[in-house]
């Protein structure tokens, strides 16, 4: 009975908040700002900086330390992030430690919360489908992680569809259990999806909305209490999204939101003893976290993502366009970006490379189809290019120069879309392999060619890589596809003429394979794997056999 009442209350609260918002939204369509938002994407500037706050124990808080973020397009200080330092972590530790290991809900505790999250997701999905809201988030993403409107909107769209997917009863279906008959009457085993309790989510700069929302909601659906930390350069987007989620009925105490540097976060995780941390970002940090947190982590780290063009040449224009998108959309700053292209010699006889060059040269700063690189400077990328060009037989295919006429601050990088050819045999040499397969998180790719009998060399190159995120086998030859897939491990592998490495939507698994710590994002399988563990309850209620006698000891 109590549960029913609680459930009704939850639903009434969710519905009321959303309804009042929707009506005020429709009544005030001409009003400039959105009711949940505290900033206007276009107005943020040096004279009107935006502020990013934290949430702890259900309250928005500031801090005494402000980290100033500069506009990646002109270097103007334009966002102030209230960052928590080591002296300020205790309230976050206390908040997390209030959540028991068995979580905020599980199949035996507060199951109405599964329904509540179905409702919140439905409301949030609806909000993101409103053109004005979608446009707001798209432009906000563009301000902090400059990419074209379409690429930024892609994030909003994926997030909106994801939330739609987990509307209604779909959250409770995530926690679906199973039963197996036992050995005797009254015995039955049941498998359940169990939360971890207090958990943490650490996400990078490149997808300011998509990655944090998909992981955050997955954590919540399964009954965990998450603390979320997004790269401060872009955390303004999640600051605003948290406000939207609160509008949609998210209980304010369910999520803590923190801005801090990595060192402070590390301290907090150790002190709060979070049961699981999902980290999306660089391999270097991922490896450190795995040690510090004694393996209680799931990781989606680097990807030196590869594409192989098979022997069957067809649809050259289309393949060239997909290569261009995979390597250079978002200025190559996707974990799924194409880092190396293995081209069958049949493709070398076509005009594929010159088509790729033409497409790369269409990209321009004005519409952000090429733009600032947030983790590499121009010098660092050009130095890497020069090192590759010293390898015997290598050559610059296109790019390899700084962008011109821009005001991107020197702390960030700005280069033209770049491709460097390196001969396969040279790439495989011990001295060169590490250099050639170093991931440059920018508009940068290596191109190589293999002869018809050299597929084993290609497969050897793939075997020696250490991160296995996305891959593409561009061919409609089933035997070729079989051979490549059967001899590789990448977690998200596209196969067929239209294969790509990027663009992973919410409807398929995205994550590395070949690593027991590998995380996934997007699908029910990813949510269950990352955000819940298995618990088995074996019922054994009798009755006792009628003639039961005490057996001898064994
Ligand atoms: N949709 C993104 C993946 C976001 C990941 O975590 C991509 O295709 O790169």
TrEMBL record:
Coiled coil: none annotated. One of its GO terms (biological process) is L-proline catabolic process to L-glutamate. GO terms for cellular component: mitochondrion. SUPFAM superfamilies: ALDH-like (SSF53720). Keywords: NAD, Oxidoreductase. GO terms for molecular function: aldehyde dehydrogenase (NAD+) activity; L-glutamate gamma-semialdehyde dehydrogenase activity. This is Aldehyde dehydrogenase domain-containing protein.
């Amino acid at each position: 009975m109590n549960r029913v009442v609680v459930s009704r209350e939850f639903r009434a609260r969710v519905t009321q908040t959303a309804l009042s918002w929707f009506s005020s939204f429709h009544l005030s369509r001409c009003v400039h700002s959105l009711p949940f938002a505290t900033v206007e994407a276009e107005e943020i500037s040096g004279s009107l900086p935006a502020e990013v706050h934290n949430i702890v124990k259900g309250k928005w808080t500031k801090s005494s330390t402000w980290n100033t973020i500069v506009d990646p397009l002109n270097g103007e200080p334009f966002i102030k992030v209230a960052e928590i330092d080591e002296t300020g972590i205790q309230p976050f530790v206390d908040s997390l430690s209030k959540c028991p290991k068995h979580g905020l809900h599980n199949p035996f505790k507060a199951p109405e919360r599964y329904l509540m999250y179905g409702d919140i997701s439905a409301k949030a999905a609806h909000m993101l489908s409103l053109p004005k809201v979608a446009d707001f988030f798209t432009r906000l993403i563009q301000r902090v992680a400059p990419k074209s409107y379409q690429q930024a909107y892609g994030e909003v769209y994926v997030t909106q569809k994801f939330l739609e997917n987990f509307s209604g009863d779909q959250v409770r279906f995530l926690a679906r259990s199973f039963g197996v008959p036992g050995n005797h009457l009254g015995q039955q085993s049941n498998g359940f999806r169990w939360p971890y309790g207090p958990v943490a989510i650490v996400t990078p700069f490149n997808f300011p909305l998509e990655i944090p929302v998909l992981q955050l909601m997955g954590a919540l659906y399964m009954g965990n209490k998450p603390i979320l930390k997004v790269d401060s350069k872009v955390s303004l987007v999640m600051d605003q999204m948290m406000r939207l989620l609160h509008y949609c009925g998210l209980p304010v105490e369910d999520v803590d939101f923190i801005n801090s540097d990595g060192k402070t976060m590390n301290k907090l995780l150790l002190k709060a003893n979070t049961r699981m941390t999902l980290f999306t970002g660089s391999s270097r940090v991922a490896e450190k976290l795995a040690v510090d947190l004694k393996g209680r982590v799931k990781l989606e780290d680097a990807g030196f993502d590869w594409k192989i063009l098979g022997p069957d040449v067809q649809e050259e224009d289309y393949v060239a366009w997909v290569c261009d998108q995979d390597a250079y959309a978002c200025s190559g700053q996707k974990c799924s970006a194409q880092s190396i292209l293995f081209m069958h010699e049949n493709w070398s006889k076509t005009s594929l490379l010159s088509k790729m060059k033409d497409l790369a040269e269409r990209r321009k700063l004005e519409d952000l189809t090429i733009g600032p690189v947030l983790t590499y400077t121009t010098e660092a990328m050009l130095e890497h290019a020069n090192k590759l060009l010293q390898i015997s037989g290598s050559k610059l295919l296109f790019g390899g120069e700084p962008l011109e006429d821009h005001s991107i601050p020197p702390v960030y990088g700005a280069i033209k879309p770049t491709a460097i050819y390196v001969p396969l045999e040279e790439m495989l040499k011990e001295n060169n392999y590490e250099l050639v397969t170093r991931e440059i998180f920018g508009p940068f790719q290596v191109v190589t060619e293999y002869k018809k009998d050299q597929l084993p060399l290609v497969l050897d190159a793939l075997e020696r890589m250490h991160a296995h995120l996305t891959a593409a086998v561009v061919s409609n030859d089933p035997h070729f596809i079989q051979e490549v897939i059967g001899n590789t491990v990448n977690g998200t592998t596209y196969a067929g003429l239209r294969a790509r490495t990027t663009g992973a939507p919410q409807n398929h698994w995205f994550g590395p394979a070949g690593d027991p710590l590998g995380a996934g994002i997007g699908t029910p399988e990813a949510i269950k794997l990352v955000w819940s563990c298995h618990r088995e309850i074996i019922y054994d209620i009798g009755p006792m056999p009628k003639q039961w006698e005490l057996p001898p000891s064994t």
